[in-house]
Amino acid sequence: MDRPQFPSDISREQFEHVRGMLEAARRKTRPRKHDLYDVFCAVLFLLETRGAWRSMPPEFPPWRTVHEYFTQWTMLREANVTLLERALVTVGRDKAAEHLRNLLAPR
């Protein structure tokens, strides 16, 4: 969907760095109706403006859709933090930090 740019938007190039992780968080029950980039930018908009879900501009996907994705992504974040904490304890801080740098390095 073509929509106006908002100050909170990131570029599609920046979005590609997190696309895989965000797609992995979703239950694959049916084809996606909304562009994941637009959903992500809607979350960024709400976080920046501190607005209410229902006050989201109509150019974004429906607020309930954005909220559902946000909930799934929040659970993914919590799981990643737990895994990182376990890695720090299991393999030690230096090895875990090195592994994290490797994961985040541009490809």
Task: Explain what this protein looks like in three dimensions.
- By secondary structure, this protein is mainly alpha-helical.
- It has one domain.
- The chain has four helices and no strands.
- The model has no long low-confidence stretch (mean pLDDT 79).
Strand element count: 0
Please trace the helix and strand order, writing H or E for each element: HHHH
| Stretches with pLDDT under 50, minimum 5 residues | none
**Helix/strand structural class:** mainly alpha
Radius of gyration: 16 Å
Q: What is the strand content? A: under 5%
Overall average residue pLDDT:
79
The DSSP helix count reads: 4
Secondary structure: helix percent: 55-70%
Q: What composes the largest sheet? A: none
Distance from N terminus to C terminus (CA atoms, Å) equals 29 Å
Shape: elongated
Tell me the number of structural domains. Answer: 1
Descriptive labels:
single chain; 107 residues; mainly alpha; 0% strand; elongated
In short:
The protein is mostly helical and 107 residues long. It is 64% helix and 0% strand.
Present the secondary structure layout.
Elements: H1 12-24, H2 36-49, H3 63-91, H4 93-104
